[in-house]
Amino acid sequence: MINVNSVNPSGQLSPELKKRIRQDVQSMHAYAIQDSVGMVKLDAMENPHRLPAHLQVELGRRLGALALNRYPDGRVNDLRRALADYAGMPEGFDIMLGNGSDELISLLSLACNVPGGSVLAPVPGFVMYAMSAQLQGLAFVGVPLTPDFELDEAAMLAAIAEHQPSIVYLAYPNNPTANLWDDAVIEKIIAAVGEQGGLVVMDEAYQPFSSKSYLGRISRHGHVLLMRTLSKFGLAGVRLGYMMGPKALIAEIDKVRPPYNISVLNYECALFALEHQEVFAAQAADLVQQRERLLKALRAMPGLTVWNSDANMILVRVPGAADAAGLVFERLKAGGVLVKNISKMHPLLSNCLRLTVGTADENTQLLATLQKAL
Question: In what helix (H) or strand (E) does residue 229 lie, and over which residues does it extend?
């Protein structure tokens, strides 16, 4: 007789129930969020600035008046138009919204899950490219960057020729390395993917802090999508990503989007923010200034390797033995500063920490605590 209890007293799933869950899912780890209570939170590339008090009050009134008893309505199309205008979307293109960029990445994998399909991206890179591919049954091909975290042109072109991926992701700038890649190499990769019929997704999550964008070149291609998020704009808690591309291409991917994926609260917050975009632009400008301050101070610390950044994060390598980054991470945490230890993410990131750019006061505390930790 089959045991109908799904969980036994030891807290383990029953063998019968485990048979119903994919083996690869059972071997995975859920995305972990670090406990940040009481900490200077510099681990998740968030904009540290809150809304000014008068805007908090105004937004609260606006959200309180929403019809939460109704499904989202045509107001979501007002947001699509506002975002297209804000981004400067080219003629002949359309825009698609997601519950964060994470959902858009998952929907791309779902739409492009054809027999023999694969997803390709440089590594180290954003973990969701590989995870979304795996969850949809697509092979993931990671092509290592050079030791200086530049695109390996020959390796990328060889992998594209061999695997003919359905989707190639190019983060511009990259996470967690925070750098922009060579434009000439990017164009060669885009051309190679186009020749074999694949898609290229330019992921510009950190565009508010970057010195360059691919937007001005996107209309040259019929197989390139440009993806952005309002998380780094200053609305990480709202969870709203958007993707632009040729209308016919967006129309196909949009077919797999769940109905009402953008809540009334999401789109009203986003519309409100776009109406006050000058506030967020000033916050981004402040963070760029703070980034330059941090880069200068970090490079003055003996033994620390610091890479250039076009995002609101800085990649550093600490000196010492194999787990020196782990030791420095724990010392920072004990000092009340939470950063991201990425030293185990990929061999190229050995002894590396990722530091989010914070407010002036937060960065002062980071620098002082890091100096002691080293």
Answer: strand 224-229
| Token digits of residue 317 | 């390598």
pTM: 0.92
Q: What is the DSSP string of 87-102?
A: HTPPTTEEEEEESHHH
Interacting residues of 21 by C-beta distance below 8 A, sequence separation 6+: 13
Angle between helices 360-373 and 277-299 (to 10 degrees): 20
> What per-residue confidence (pLDDT) applies to 1?
45
Q: Tell me the C-alpha distance between 369 and 374, whole Å.
A: 9
Show which of 275, 299, 315 is a domain's final residue: 275
Report the half-sphere exposure of 162 (CA within 13 A, side-chain side): 11
Give the whole-angstrom CA distance, residue 325 versus residue 342. Answer: 8
CA 354/CA 342 separation, integer angstroms:
7
Same domain for 261 and 347, yes or no, is no
Residues 105 and 141 in one domain: yes
